[in-house]
Amino acid sequence: MARKPAAKKTAAKKAPAKKAASKSKYKFILVNKRKGVCNIQLNRPEFLNAMNIEMAQEICDVLVEVEQDRKIVAIILSGNERAFCAGADLGRMGSKPEDRFDMYRERFNIAPNRQLYRVLCFYTKPVITAAEGYCLGGGFEMAMWGDFIVAGENAQFGLPEVRHSLIPGGGGTQNLPRLIGPALAKEMIWTGRRLKAAEAKEYRIVNHVVPAGQALKKAKEIAAEIAQNGPLGVMMSKQAINRGLDQSRFNGFLGEGDLAHMLNFSEDRAAGLKAFKEGRRAKFKGQ
Description:
Blueprint: E1 29-34, E2 37-42, H1 53-67, E3 74-78, E4 83-85, H2 100-109, H3 112-121, E5 127-131, E6 134-136, H4 137-145, E7 148-152, E8 156-158, H5 172-180, H6 182-191, E9 195-196, H7 197-202, E10 208-210, H8 215-227, H9 231-244, H10 249-262, H11 267-277
Parallel strand pairs: 2-3, 3-5, 4-6, 5-7, 6-8, 7-10
Antiparallel strand pairs: 1-2, 8-9
Helix pairs in contact: 1-3, 5-6, 9-10
């Protein structure tokens, strides 16, 4: 009687190895780069995204890194629906009497939050803030160092430092008067009053007010429009505007002319003019 052929042993299928979850190198922010936009999301939700030293350093590190990345044309700063940033982490602001003069020195070149404001002040790419919920104190100051703000209708803006016998120390006394004039700025700072999004738009603190939860979406739409244009033209126009604000109109006009002339030496300008003649969109290289 013929034996049945022995059944072939089937090798047990190994379950596909799970990819190790990528671990972010940042502790207090989330970074997402997509379609030419870098979204830096503040991520201390249990503290309403209050700014601590480590968060300031992480934001600063990302800004410095992506400024040299030609693929990134704009930056969006965001938080969550409860808060963009409720201000500085006041619980860590105490100091020992013997350290106070060292703190005076470190605030110029060492303190991460001061470095962050300085980087934003001289940043060459558009920085858009998408604000939901609380945007107060140092968070509001950081947003004002950017180029403009998109607000969810639930957003609140204010500089409440005087309530703690402090004053705004991150540029608030300089940037807010330039946005809304000295009289309104003094009232806001001296009373510590918060503005709701609709009132902030009336004051021209924010560019757009959108339904709650939609600020980031709107900011991305604007960034996508910017991304279609020549990055060098965007950079030079930002330089012309920011530099001209603190100059006479005549000197600002001269500076604008110099920046416009510099673009004559770029490949992108030639590509843009050629595309215009041919009735198509140009592909810019940022050079």
